[in-house]
Amino acid sequence: MEQPPAPKSKLKKLSEDSLTKQPEEVFDVLEKLGEGSYGSVFKAIHKESGQVVAIKQVPVESDLQEIIKEISIMQQCDSPYVVKYYGSYFKNTDLWIVMEYCGAGSVSDIIRLRNKTAIFMIPTNPPPTFRKPELWSDDFTDFVKKCLVKNPEQRATATQLLQHPFIKNAKPVSILRDLITEAMEIKAKRHEEQQRELEEEEENSDEDELDSHTMVKTSVESVGTMRAT
């Protein structure tokens, strides 16, 4: 693709006059870069300055409060480390958010170049499953599966999950007290066995050392007697 010409001047903020026009009069849209959480992102050129910008087109029926919050934060941030915000347009049913263009790609592109991390794998990969599903009950497997549905609109609510057979058929909390008591008894018994084994090893070690001294002493006495004769 042909590279855009060098910018005539640096764009700092869209003028009031530019914001009253249709966005197509102010920008030449070049290509679609990708899709984000709220809409599509396009690469465009600001006609007046020749500067390359990114335009996020967000359907108005999206979470408007979150979008307004994002714009408000971007307006307040003035740092070389934060994407600059130039202005917004309403076009038909879409909100066009004009931002600084970052030519190095998205953060996800950088993460893909390195070892995959949990923060990248969670939203992009299928939900995890049990390594040995045969060890778990069908109710528990189904319960976990329902909890891990990524789309919040399709995911079961907390009220629905509380009605799941895995929860409804759960044994009373009192059973935990018995299990904890049993576990503590087993732990104490193992500790006693380990102490007993340790004591036996020390006793055997002392006996071996005593036998060794006795053998040496007998040998010396025998040699001395033979020489006397």
TrEMBL record:
Superkingdom as given in the UniProt entry: Eukaryota
EC number(s) stated in the UniProt entry for this protein: 2.7.11.1
Pfam families: Pkinase
Any one Gene Ontology molecular-function term assigned to this protein's record: protein serine/threonine kinase activity
GO cellular-component term (any): cytoplasm
Chain ranges of the Protein kinase domain: 27-229
Swiss-Prot/TrEMBL keywords: ATP-binding, Kinase, Nucleotide-binding, Serine/threonine-protein kinase, Transferase
Keyword ATP-binding carried by entry: yes
Acidic residues: compositionally biased ranges: 198-210
GO BP terms in the entry: intracellular signal transduction
Protein family membership: Belongs to the protein kinase superfamily. STE Ser/Thr protein kinase family. STE20 subfamily.
This protein's name: non-specific serine/threonine protein kinase
Compositionally biased intervals (Polar residues): 215-229
Kinase listed as a keyword: yes
EC top class, as a word: transferase
Region annotation Disordered: where it falls in the sequence: 189-229
Residues reported to bind ATP: K56
Catalytic activity from the UniProt record: L-seryl-[protein] + ATP = O-phospho-L-seryl-[protein] + ADP + H(+); L-threonyl-[protein] + ATP = O-phospho-L-threonyl-[protein] + ADP + H(+)
Gene3D superfamilies named in the record: 1.10.287.4270, Phosphorylase Kinase, domain 1 (3.30.200.20), Transferase(Phosphotransferase) domain 1 (1.10.510.10)
